[in-house]
Amino acid sequence: MKSIYPARRERATIGDVAARADVSPATVSRVLNGVENVQEDYRRRVLAAIEELGYEPNRLASNLRRRRVAMLGVVVSDIENPHFTEAVRAVEDAAFARGYRVLVCNTDESADKQREYLKLLAAERVAGVILSPSQADAPEIGELLDLGMAVVAFDRAVTDPRADLVAVNNVEGVEAAVTQLVGLGHRSIGMVAGPPGITSGDERREGYLRGLAAHGLEPAVADGGFRIDGGRQAVGELLDSHPELTAVVFANNLMTLGGLHGLSARGVRVPDDLSVIGVDDPFWGALVSPPLTTLAQPVREMATCAVELLFRRVDGDRSEPERIMLDLELRSRSSCGPPRAGAA
Amino acid sequence: MKSIYPARRERATIGDVAARADVSPATVSRVLNGVENVQEDYRRRVLAAIEELGYEPNRLASNLRRRRVAMLGVVVSDIENPHFTEAVRAVEDAAFARGYRVLVCNTDESADKQREYLKLLAAERVAGVILSPSQADAPEIGELLDLGMAVVAFDRAVTDPRADLVAVNNVEGVEAAVTQLVGLGHRSIGMVAGPPGITSGDERREGYLRGLAAHGLEPAVADGGFRIDGGRQAVGELLDSHPELTAVVFANNLMTLGGLHGLSARGVRVPDDLSVIGVDDPFWGALVSPPLTTLAQPVREMATCAVELLFRRVDGDRSEPERIMLDLELRSRSSCGPPRAGAA
DNA sequence: CTGAAAGCGCTTACAG
DNA sequence: CTGAAAGCGCTTACAG
């Protein structure tokens, strides 16, 4: 059976174009990059030759020569988490508009995978990286910075003080949510927290603990690992060990989703039996039953900030690292109510 | 204010390593790539020099020299659609395992953006591209193929017969769903369809029409453009013009979500007033109220197939283009019931 | 404005 | 097994 693939077309090079247009490769490069002036006559011939040969510049070569590549790395811990999906999408938008491509790096909360990706990004000489770290103190982060690459920490801080940061005031936000629950009459409030060691999760736990402490209440925390299944499991543990709970705060949207599933499986009604507040306001937040009360992050705005910052660095801005902190917004829907009758 | 950035560290090159280890650059390259044998003594010296200099190979150079780059392009029409997010994620997994990176290209259903990205991918000389086309007959697809790059159409077919395809039997799947609704007693079934011209959407519409025709029923279709808002709007139009409808099929998950929102805003209860089936079974499908009856695509499997196929092509397999068609699976949950009492 | 030449940092036949 | 040399396809000082 004969292959239907045609003889692989040889790719024209800048030399082929130059020969056909009867100019030097340098001139072709100039019309290609449109920076210096080229006589109209030459330009026309070059353009014609490009057209005729179907020439497409080889970026591998120009990348090497220019020693930079119009590419950004976006390192996230879970691309299936709508929070990060939205961020990736916003970054892609902004990057595309500036002629940059984006390399998506999914670390699965694994320090190893993060390490590998950061090394890759260094080897690839990308212009910069937006990083939501799985491991905040990875030495590879410093190495990127050493190499002069821009690094913007996103959503979670990194240890290296030279990286910029765009994140959210988690402590204050969660503390306010707890206060809101207390205002509704709750005295037993649990938290399904993120894995320790990640600043966003740690701060949300901190906000929760502060909120409880401010009202003299006892905390009850379970680790849900920022995943759907973890959330389901953690809320179960929490209710088993603390049946008195009348409200639970979930530290991210995936755990909230899993938690709701777990609650419904146990026959726990929301908000009648248990009030729920979830950090993040994903697109399905208003559509689950009951519509979720959430602590929304301004993801799009965060992503836009991060990309702008990154491009400023790429463009040579060497001023002090920035720490841009945005606020969480409490969006009250129907998953919170007063504690059930008969609660302690 | 002094910049905290240190003098930008000069990057060691293979030449620096060679000098330090007192060998030739060729030898360094050999231990780096581990293909040819190098004397133990030399190897040790090279490794030591790499360590001491913190050398990280410049992939731009090796890419150029090798004339290929360990990178895949994944072109999707909407990365925020969980269906594609999951696919991207699966592709990233498989690619990472093989040492490939993935360039994520979001086209927003725009033919222009698709064109730009495909040209970019050609210029970048990626090994191959997995493409869920916004424009099936874009000439750039043929150009990639001409250049010897692997192209696997994903989820939607492309016109060029040389591309492989991994998709789903939409016609049969949706027809079966319609039959199921008819079995429940429905006689007035509407569809919120995708934008015309995209094979997946066209096939789902076709399956719907066939299913209705098989039972002598009248169709009622509105275009929801595969987006959340479109779904909300389309279901409204549908109910305005066809108040007799007792069931609606949505052609993808985003439109289903929007549709549910729109229905709840109109006070239409699911499934009491209206039964709903949605194509795709996103992670929130079982958690909305009521839990959705869906037509699930085996996304993970599709993505795995696509990547395997792609790598086979990258590895030189020039056999006939494949068309791998998987089946949709009807997952019955609670959003379908018998038609409301009093329905025509 | 234009071209010849050097060079980006690797890899890989080719000799030895 | 090892090294010298050529070359991947561009860009960019440097002359003219």
Number of helices of chain A: 12
Q: By helix and strand content of chain A, what is the structural category?
A: alpha/beta
Please provide the count of β strands of chain A. 12
Task: Give the spatial strand order of the biggest sheet of chain A.
Answer: 2-1-3-4-5-11
For the sheet with most strands of chain A, the description reads:
6 strands, parallel
CATH architecture field of the largest domain in chain A: 3-Layer(aba) Sandwich
Say what the CATH topology of the largest domain in chain A is: Rossmann fold
Shape designation of chain A = elongated
The top level CATH class name of the largest domain in chain A: Alpha Beta
Characteristics of this structure?
alpha/beta; six-stranded mixed sheet; DNA-binding; 3 domains; Rossmann fold; homodimer; 12 strands; 434 Repressor (Amino-terminal Domain); 344 residues
Describe what is shown at a glance:
Chain A has 344 residues and is of the alpha/beta class.
Give the helices and strands, then pairings.
Two copies of one chain form a homodimer.
Chain A: H1 14-21, H2 25-33, H3 40-53, H4 59-66, E1 69-76, H5 82-97, E2 101-106, H6 111-124, E3 126-131, H7 139-146, E4 150-154, E5 164-168, H8 170-183, E6 189-193, H9 199-214, E7 221-223, H10 228-241, E8 247-250, H11 253-266, E9 275-279, E10 293-296, H12 299-314, E11 323-326, E12 329-331
Parallel strand pairs in A: 1-2, 1-3, 3-4, 4-5, 5-11, 6-7, 6-8, 8-9, 9-10
Antiparallel strand pairs in A: 10-12
Helix pairs in contact in A: 1-2, 1-3, 5-12, 6-7, 8-9, 10-11
Chain A binds a DNA duplex (16 and 16 nucleotides) through α2 and α4.
